[in-house]
Task: inverse folding
């Protein structure tokens, strides 16, 4: 028995290394496929690349600055909430635009603007939509940063007669500038590489790196330049992730006296931001209902589409969470963790192109490729956002258990899984929600119309944009259903395992 | 305890999903016509507008399968550009391709060999006779023009008046690099103002452009939602608004210099396996019955001359002179230079 345990202990690190290598290979697979099948990356038009990158940097900088500004205003509004249920509601409310697929945000905002004013297309339109999407995330993060950094000191300064501005200038800023800078980098990276929004409203000049890559690949047929840009994107994201060494702390003090920072009018923006999106999605005209009635066979088509989307959304959650579990089984290996923190998936377009190399796109093969594509896109980002920090806090417990002779399966069952179940549930939920709104990859990888979003894009391509807007709702509801389902599963498993 | 709960929950959800899929599969199995197992399969490649649920493809194929003693496997991609990517794949074989537009024909010919297609001269509508090619034949078509709502804007009288400040920020256009109508607009400008003046014209019209979208549907969606006052689209779009929406306020701007034409072609690759079936499908697609379906579902002109006059809405569409093929070949040669000019002006 002792001998076999010793053998397991010896075997374990190599098993984890093999597993980590396999996972790394899987995540890097699209890049291998692209570089081996397409060509040698180089810039064929350096002048345009330079000019476009300037434009993209300006867009990302403006989006970051304005999102942080709006986020700060909203954070002050959130500080004015006293009742915990109200706080819980609004904290989730402002995150809706960042959690739902950007396609929904886009349609919602365009609908909202329809009768009020002309939507500003071009860079300003991209910035506006980015601010609507990301200011909620900024607000929540800033609340956490401020609570964790200023707790106690702000009250003391207040008692001693310092004004808010004096405190901010002399003590406050120096404490929050690090985590705020980290947050700004995250927002900058998101704006720099976003796709759907700059593609639709950005106009001719590429407003994000992803769109620039897409334009080089799809429009310019300049595959070498597309690959060179992809390399820039990967290097950029690695550099960003190197800066994000110290994630935002979550150890928030409940004794923080937030009344000194509350600013009630900020709540108006908290409400307005998400309301614009939801009101826009609700604001479907009479035309959509009449179009619905003109289509007698629509019911069957929608049920079929929902069924396939259900499968896609469900299995995306399962695959993504399965891969995260495998990652957790391979950790803690410092090299592997560094890889996961530094690695970012290539753009959705490029992953789609890479997977086209595999023959067969009909039926299950097409669906499998689609789910694999989602897994490849979502795994690195969701690991960084939701899993790494929590897992890292468990390393000490794991090391002690290992020293005391616990087997890896026991560590997984008794330590890792119970404490990570909530995060894993969140990962599955967010990946399902994001997968529910995709139509670009589906159209690329599936040979036939399967998913509900493909149906919607058919309606949009045949004058029936109003009908498509109306029919977005079942999809959104399905995505949210899965989000809460996975979240609930995570909480239940976590709660049960501790009891 | 925790593991068993986890496995129980996951197993339950997985069984539920697979169970639903399995029962659906079993249920659908009842209606499979057994005779089809031995039937030859015709493989059709097309794109969303033809093969999608709102397109003419599904119904047409259903009708064809009733008479052909065969089964049809319809593959679709998002746009005609992606069709080219599919055709480039080494192991991808198809018997007939539906939905190539005229700007893509040279590219299609460079990728694959195509069978010659012979049809009598009088078979086609006289307006499009010049567009029929040796290896490709059209199955629907429509001229393109600026579409507007009569109660919103006074239409431009000629091309120069498109530059008037009253159209400031009001035209929704498509990117010529990603959209066929966008490319047709560039071709129209090239034909209207000539190569020498096109750069100036583009620079001047920029202020009147509301937005440039990557696809026709996005540009048209902005126009439908009232964000833009005019858009460049098929003249036959009017039929949709007149007949389906019962909204007669939509109209098209007619320029006497002529309008570009969007033709959608069918071709049969030389390496087809079911070549006879492919030819039968092509004839079926061009039959009067199928062409009626094309008119009513795709909202495009049929290629058969007999049909247009029989339809009230189609016969009421504004008549407009067409820009013919000779200039198109010239344009195709200079396409990349003109796209560059366009890009420079619109950035």
Result:
């Amino acid at each position: 028995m002792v001998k076999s345990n010793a053998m397991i202990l010896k075997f374990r690190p190599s098993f984890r290394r093999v597993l980590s290598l396999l996972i790394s290979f899987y995540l890097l697979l699209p890049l291998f496929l692209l570089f081996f099948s397409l060509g040698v990356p180089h810039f064929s038009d350096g002048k345009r690349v330079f000019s476009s990158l300037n434009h993209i940097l300006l867009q990302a900088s403006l989006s970051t600055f304005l999102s942080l500004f709006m986020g700060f205003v909203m954070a002050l509004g959130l500080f004015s909430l006293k009742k915990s249920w109200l706080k819980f509601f609004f904290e989730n409310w402002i995150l809706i635009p960042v959690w739902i697929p950007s396609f929904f945000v886009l349609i919602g905002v365009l609908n909202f603007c329809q009768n009020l004013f002309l939507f500003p297309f071009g860079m300003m339109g991209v910035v506006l939509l980015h601010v609507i999407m990301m200011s909620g995330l900024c607000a929540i993060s800033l609340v956490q940063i401020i609570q964790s950094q200023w707790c106690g000191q702000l009250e003391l300064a207040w008692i001693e007669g310092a004004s808010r501005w004096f405190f901010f200038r002399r003590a406050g800023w120096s404490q929050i500038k690090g985590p705020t800078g980290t947050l700004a980098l995250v927002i900058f990276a998101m704006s720099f590489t976003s796709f759907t929004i700059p593609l639709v409203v950005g106009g001719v000049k590429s407003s994000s790196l992803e769109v620039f890559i897409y334009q080089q690949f799809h429009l310019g047929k300049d595959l070498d330049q597309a690959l060179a840009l992809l390399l820039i994107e990967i290097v950029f994201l690695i550099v960003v992730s190197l800066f994000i060494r110290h994630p935002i702390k979550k150890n928030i003090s409940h004794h923080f006296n937030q009344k000194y920072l509350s600013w009630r009018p900020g709540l108006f923006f908290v409400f307005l931001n998400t309301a614009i999106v939801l009101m826009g999605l609700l604001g479907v005209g009479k035309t959509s209902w009449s179009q619905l009635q003109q289509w007698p066979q629509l019911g069957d088509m929608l049920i079929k589409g929902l069924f396939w989307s259900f499968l896609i959304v469900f299995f995306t959650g399962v695959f993504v969470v399965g891969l995260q579990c495998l990652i957790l089984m391979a950790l803690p290996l410092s090299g592997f963790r560094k890889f996961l923190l530094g690695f970012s998936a290539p753009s959705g377009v490029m992953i789609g192109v890479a997977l086209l190399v595999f023959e067969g796109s009909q039926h299950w093969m097409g669906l499998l490729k689609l789910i694999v594509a989602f897994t490849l896109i979502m795994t690195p980002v969701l690991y960084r956002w939701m899993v790494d920090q929590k897992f890292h806090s468990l390393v000490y417990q794991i090391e002690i258990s290992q020293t005391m002779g616990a087997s890896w399966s026991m560590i997984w069952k008794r330590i890792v899984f119970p404490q990570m179940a909530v995060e894993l549930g969140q990962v599955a939920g967010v990946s399902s929600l994001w997968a529910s709104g995709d139509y670009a990859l589906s159209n690329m990888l599936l040979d036939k119309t399967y998913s509900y979003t493909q149906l919607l894009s058919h309606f949009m391509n045949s004058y029936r944009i109003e009908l498509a807007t109306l029919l977005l709702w079942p999809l959104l509801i399905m995505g949210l259903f899965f989000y809460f389902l996975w979240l609930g599963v995570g909480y239940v498993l976590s709660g049960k395992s501790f009891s | 305890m925790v593991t068993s709960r986890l496995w129980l929950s996951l197993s339950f959800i997985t069984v539920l999903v697979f169970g639903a899929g399995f029962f659906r599969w079993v249920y659908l199995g009842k209606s499979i016509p057994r005779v089809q197992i031995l039937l030859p399969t015709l493989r059709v490649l097309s794109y969303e507008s033809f093969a999608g649920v709102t397109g003419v493809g599904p119904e047409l194929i259903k009708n064809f399968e009733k008479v052909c003693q065969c089964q049809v496997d319809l593959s679709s991609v998002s746009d005609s550009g992606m069709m080219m990517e599919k055709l480039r794949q080494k192991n991808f074989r198809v018997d007939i391709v539906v939905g190539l537009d005229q700007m893509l024909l040279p590219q299609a010919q460079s990728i694959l060999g195509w069978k010659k297609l012979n049809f009598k001269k009088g078979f086609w509508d006289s307006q499009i006779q010049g567009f029929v090619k040796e290896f490709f034949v059209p199955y629907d078509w429509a001229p393109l023009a600026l579409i507007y709502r009569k109660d919103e804007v006074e239409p431009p009288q000629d091309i120069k008046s498109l530059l008037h400040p009253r159209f400031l920020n009001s035209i929704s256009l498509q990117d010529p690099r990603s959209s066929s109508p966008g490319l047709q607009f560039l071709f129209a400008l090239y034909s209207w103002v000539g190569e020498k003046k096109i750069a100036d014209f583009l620079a001047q019209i920029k202020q009147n452009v509301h937005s440039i979208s990557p696809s026709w549907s996005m540009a048209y969606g902005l126009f439908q939602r009232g964000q833009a006052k005019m858009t460049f689209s098929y003249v036959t779009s009017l039929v949709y608004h007149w007949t389906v929406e019962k909204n007669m306020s939509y109209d098209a701007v007619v320029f006497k210099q002529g309008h570009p034409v969007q033709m959608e072609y069918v071709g049969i690759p030389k390496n087809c396996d079911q070549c006879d079936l492919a030819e039968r499908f092509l004839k079926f697609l061009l039959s009067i019955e199928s062409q009626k379906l094309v008119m009513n579902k795709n909202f495009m002109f049929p290629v058969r001359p007999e049909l247009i006059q029989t339809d009230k809405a189609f016969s009421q569409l504004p008549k407009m002179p067409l820009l013919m093929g000779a200039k198109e070949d010239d344009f195709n040669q200079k396409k990349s230079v003109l796209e560059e000019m366009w890009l420079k002006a619109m950035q």
Summary: Chain A has two domains: 1-37+285-499, 42-283.
